[in-house]
Amino acid sequence: MGLCEPHEVQPCKVLHMGQSNPRHKYRLGGEWIESSPEEKDLGVSVDEKLNMMQQHVLVDHKANCIMGCIQITRVSRLREMVLSFYSAPVRPHLEYCVQLWSPQHKKNMDMLE
User: Fold this and answer.
1) CA 6 to chain centre
2) For 79-97, what is each residue's pLDDT tens digit?
3) Other CB atoms closer than 10 Å to residue 85's CB: what's the count?
4) What is the greatest pairwise CA distance in the chain?
5) DSSP state for residue 34 in the 8-state scheme
6) N or C: which end of the chain has fewer CB within 10 A?
7) The dihedral formed by the CA atoms of 27, 31, 35 and 39, expressed in degrees to the nearest 10
8) Neighbouring residues of 97: CB distance < 8 A, sequence distance ≥ 6
9) Neighbours of 67 (CB within 10 A)
10) What pLDDT, on the 0 to 100 scale, is given for residue 6?
């Protein structure tokens, strides 16, 4: 049984990309599939204009939360210790699928730095 069998139409959505997209309606097993302005796939949020701003905000928020926890609980202020605490839990969130959602605008780059 696949993910989008006729009795499982709920998890299926259509993401219309591009300005000249005619935005056709689609059916699966006799039921209409709803369209969505934004979807998350492989942990990366993308909208119909291929704008990654929401992804930048999510990544920035998650990294700042982890850094806040590290700052509250850290025992040492040695540079080596801080770098190891940073590189283990924070960097993977910042680098996950970065090839896809890499910031294009200076304000997004500043946010993530």
Assistant:
1) 28
2) 787 777 777 887 776 776 6
3) 19
4) 63
5) P
6) N
7) -100
8) 42, 43, 44
9) 14
10) 52
At CA 58, angle to CA 56 and CA 63, rounded to 5? Answer: 95
To 5 degrees, how large is the angle CA 70–CA 72–CA 74?
60
With bands split at pLDDT 50, 70 and 90, how would you rate the model's confidence at 20? confident
Residue appearing with tokens 């591009």? 18
Decide if 42 contacts 35 (C-beta within 8 A): no
CA angle 88, 62, 108 (to 5 degrees): 105
Cβ contacts of 79 within 8 Å, gap of 6 or more: none
Provide the token pair at 100: 């896809």
- Which residues have C-beta within 8 Å of that of residue 44, sequence separation ≥ 6? 52, 55, 96, 97, 100, 101
CA distance 68 to 112: 15
- What is the Cα–Cα distance from 53 to 58, expressed in whole angstroms? 9
